[in-house]
Amino acid sequence: MEHIAKFTSRLSGIQSLRGLALLCVLFVHLYETERKYTLGPRLLDNWAHTFMVGVDLFLVISGLVLTLLAFGHFNDRDYLRRYAYARVTRVYPIYLLYTLAVVPVYLMMPGMVNASEGGQVNLLRSLLMLPDVNLPLIPVAWTLHHEAYFYIVFGLMLMLPQRALPKAMLCWLMVSLVLIAMGSQIPRPEQGGFEKVLFNPINLEFLLGMALALVIGRGYHKHGASAIALGVAWLLIAQVWFYSTHGVHWISDPWRIPALGLPAALITYGFVVLELGQGKVIARWAISLGDAAYSIYLTHLLTMALIGKIWQRVGIEGWPAHLLFLVVTAGISLAVGVMAYRLIERPTIQWFRRLEQTRRVPSVKQAT
Hints:
Number of helices: 13
Shape: globular
Strand content: under 5%
Largest sheet: none
């Protein structure tokens, strides 16, 4: 595995795909918001749950990107330290700032937060970004628990020589399958917070991303467009099949990997190799959304809920009103998230990077 290429430059295709994945997540929540806060026949229906694949795209991308960046740095203590610092400072401080901003809303209007679970929130666990039996204060942050789990496992893999990576991935796959089998014997409502993370099949999607990195890192950059077409077709066929056999559009955990994870992996592969092999970047307009995806992801639910509350008081029926509501809600949610990215997330990340650089300079001088 030593001949695998290093990847140091940013891939625009990945950022555009992040932007599209974000729009998929927003679309699902637009459906939920319309259903909750508007009157009369809805424009969106249960088929909107097809776009829940946005979450799966995010997880596959995480596995892919971290592995690509790590090639050439395995068994490197300095890289492991920088990796740990980057993961913690990239995710937790911004999450904590946004969570603290939601706390006053929760205390004054509990029904605005986590209404799907009766507003039940463990504030301490939410602030510490620890899994709980209920969703966190920012409900979509449940995916961050899986991201954190992956960061820890991948950090352990970084301690090994690069040639041992496939074996390490196989070991994690076997452990994950055992955990999933254990989880299938315990009803989800009876599982604890950490059990819900460890037992969830969705963790396998990080491994899918890592597997893609191995393929791409070896220089296989072919059939990108075919992979995207196959992934989209697979996704749609899986949705039709699941609805015809189960009567619902919401893909349950046992079927998530074959119905959503594998199509997400094919689409991700296609986006990356089209850029690496042909210099093509699909949906360049979505790159800026990809840059701000984390802030938009964490802020959009509260923004939608606030707009929904206001719209509920207006009480306008009919499809033109619903269309206006959806467009306005989506536009404001995106705008608020982009603003949060520019005013909060980006400056925070830059501050932590400068802090690391100032700490590294003295250590380099001491070494010389």
